[in-house]
Hints:
about 375 residues, mainly alpha, two-stranded antiparallel sheet, 21 helices, elongated
Amino acid sequence: MRRQTAPNQVIHFIRAMVKASKPDPTLYPAAIMIVCTSMMALESKALHGYIKGTEKANKGGRPYNLADMIPFIAAATGNMRLFETLTLTPALLLEQSHALLPSALKAAIVADQDAMLRKILKYIVDNVKGKPEAKTWKDMRSAARQIGEALCMAVRLHKNVAASTLFDFRDANEPFARSMSWSFSDRLLYCAIDSTNTAVLYRVLGVDNPGAVAHVKEGSKTHYRIDSISMEILYKRGGIVFWRILLKDGVVGPNELCSDKTSLQHALKRRRYDIARMLIKSGAVVDAITPDGSNVLWQAAKDGFAKDVEFLLDHGADPNSVGKDGKSALAAAESGQYGKCRFLLRQAMDQRKEESERRELDRLAVLVSLM
């Protein structure tokens, strides 16, 4: 039997849109390229779903037509004349007219049309109506949400000129910034980390919050602060490239405390041994006393984390370390019946004892030779 496959909705969509543009000969030659390029603005998961046919491209059942194409074609091509012929509304520029068509705002970003992007943003500022102080002001919140999503997309796709324009827009238009979701900054950081976009790192982290002094941009001193939620994201998903920048610029200290834990504890808690190695290389004290009076190795042994114990011992931690109650790491592992931790600590203690005895024998041998 011949295998049955679902029709490719994306191909069907592109053909239908090109067919719809045929009456206008000036649009037809570039229609396929414009549509395909603009699809970069879609989330990869959604696009994958459309290709496999697991998501419906046109949920409303409305037929494709040329009117759907004009806003994003004008934006994607930077065609000011075509743009000015439209009867504009904020919704026309900020919202998608179809599931596989980006908004005009996103099309301008993905096509690197920065002049068009600035024109769209100016129109939004001039035409979004309402009172910024009113919490129920839906127009402002809706516009701010769409602009925030566009900024996340720009960061994800490394469209950093457009991202800078949107950051400047946010900084210059406080009502829009205030109307963005409380979780927007976290999502923006996720996008920067997932796409390894280090160029926008400091703007993503929020440079307007006074905090630690970072030595960035060839010695200039600027204030930055990373809140606990941002730190959680960086420990969980941040790559070595990001951490190298943060440590080098002094935004994060290798022995810095956050939520009553050392940087090393946070890294080990998430099994990020790559970050832990970098912290130690940058000056993190392996045997540092934690805020509760213990140290990192004792805590790892008490919790039964054998990999953490092994990692710390390999990087010079003292196997004879004790907790705040005077109990040794070995005793803590034994009370918890953590056999692997117990074995590693005893092995390290035996090795240290042998090394001490060997050094003492060498010292005595030197003294005898001098007599």
